[in-house]
Structure formats: C-alpha cells, structure tokens
Design brief:
Length: 257
C-alpha cells in the first residue's frame, strides 16, 4: 500500500439512495473492466448503444433492458456487455450500453436488430475500435458516476423505482468478491462527528462532521512475466444443456487388449 503525502478529507458521506447507486455504479464499472481484461477473448471492437424509453414515467422502463439483453444473449451466446441507467431532463429512462465484440455488419444489420429487439423508443448504435473506444467509454462511465452541475439530472436516482437496476452486465468470469481483492483502491479511515480542541486557537474547539480520511492507496501490481492469481478463480465454462462438465463426467472404462 502506498501512502499519500497529504491526507485529504471527504465530507460528503451522503447515505441517500442516489448516492449509494452512484457508488455502486463506480464499483461495478471497475469490476467489469478488470474481468474484461482477464478474459481470454481480447476486445477487438465495441458497439456503443443507447436505449431510450418513450414514456416519461420511469415505471414504464421496469423489465425493459433485462428483456433486451436476454434476447441478445439468446441470439449470440457468450455476449459480454455493460449498461447503466441514465435519466433525461424530462425524467424518462435512458440506458447507455457497451457491447464487446458485437456481430459483424456482414452478418447482421445490428442497427435494425437493436431497434426491433428494444421494441419502442429511440435507439442508437455506434461502432469503434476496442482500444481507444473502450477507454473512452470507461472514462465516460466513471465520470458519469460523479456528474454534477448542469447535467446532474442524469443521475438523480433518489426517485427511481427500486426495480430498475443502476447497471447490468453479463455474469463475470471472476466472482465480484475476488475481483475486489485485486482492484486499485484508496484506503480511508472513518471518523465520526466530534467536537475537538482547536490546535491553532487555545481554549477553542472545532466541530468536525463525519468524514473519511485518506491514509493510503492499495495498488494491484503484476510483475513482468507474472500472472494474476485472480485467474485461478475463474468460473468453469458452461456446456450445452444436458452435457456433463469435465469434473463430473464418469470415468472411462479401461481398454482391454
């Protein structure tokens, strides 16, 4: 763990539903990207998709994005994706999605397919390469979870129905709890609110609200030629229905000559 030269305090410890959703989104993006980098299939290109619900009431969006990605997974097995919830100024639900290695345009007209699968509302599909495009999308997602100012309405999750997930992705190959052991992260110490003596004014006291004090940073470093131990925790691949996994397959009878 590398200590910072100067500790900083974070006084915004909001426990509102919106703040909790934003923190989960930032953690979900980091987990998904770490899992993506460990996948044996490299990210060659991506499709950036936006899915907008026509109705203004967020209740109308319940189940929509789940049904959409279920159709995608049933059509293209092994689909990897990440999508998260945004809100338009009028209050309607809008999803921003990243689809890794989508089917090539020579195989399917993905713009038309997405519009049919979404089944109502506006859609948009854009393609980019898997390196620069991927980093742009990750930066956008991370910046989005911290949005403030004139676009803060996009993350006003407090009144969003609890049935609507903040983000969604395919099942990670490495369990999320194991991923957390390998992510870079700041290390904080919690301080409850208190009234303490003022070191600069003798006989005076200063009120400190509850806050987090940054005491260091934990960094995940794999040495050159090394191997991340998270690979040892990858979930086994599922075979076709009815097929026994290699671990459970009965032993073969010995051959006789």
């Amino acid at each position: 763990m590398r200590a910072e030269s100067e500790a900083r305090r974070i006084t915004d410890l909001s426990h509102s539903k919106g703040a909790q959703r934003r923190r989960r989104l930032a953690r979900g993006v980091a987990r998904w990207d770490f899992d993506r980098k460990l996948c044996a299939e490299p990210t060659r290109r991506i499709a950036t998709i936006t899915l907008t619900v026509a109705e203004r009431d967020p209740q109308a969006a319940i189940g929509r994005v789940y049904a959409f990605w279920r159709r995608v997974r049933q059509t293209w097995l092994g689909t990897r994706y990440f999508c998260w919830l945004e809100l338009q100024r009028r209050g309607a639900v809008h999803y921003h999605c990243v689809w890794l290695n989508p089917p090539h345009v020579k195989r399917v007209n993905l713009l038309a397919w997405v519009a049919r699968a979404w089944g109502g509302g506006r859609t948009q599909v854009r393609f980019s390469d898997g390196r620069g495009g991927m980093q742009r999308e990750l930066d956008y997602a991370l910046d989005y979870s911290k949005k403030m100012g004139r676009k803060a309405y996009q993350q006003r999750y407090d009144n969003v129905p609890r049935e609507l997930r903040t983000f969604m992705s395919q099942r990670l190959e490495v369990p999320p709890k194991e991923v957390d052991n390998h992510l870079d992260r700041d290390v904080y110490q919690y301080h409850a609110e208190a009234v303490l003596p003022d070191p600069e004014r003798r006989g005076h006291t200063t009120y400190w609200p509850e806050h987090l004090e940054l005491i260091g940073r934990r960094e995940h470093v794999v040495p050159a030629g090394g191997r991340c131990s998270a690979l040892d925790h990858r979930r086994p691949k599922r075979g076709p229905p009815g097929r026994l996994s290699p671990k459970r397959a009965p032993p073969r009878p010995s051959s006789s000559s």
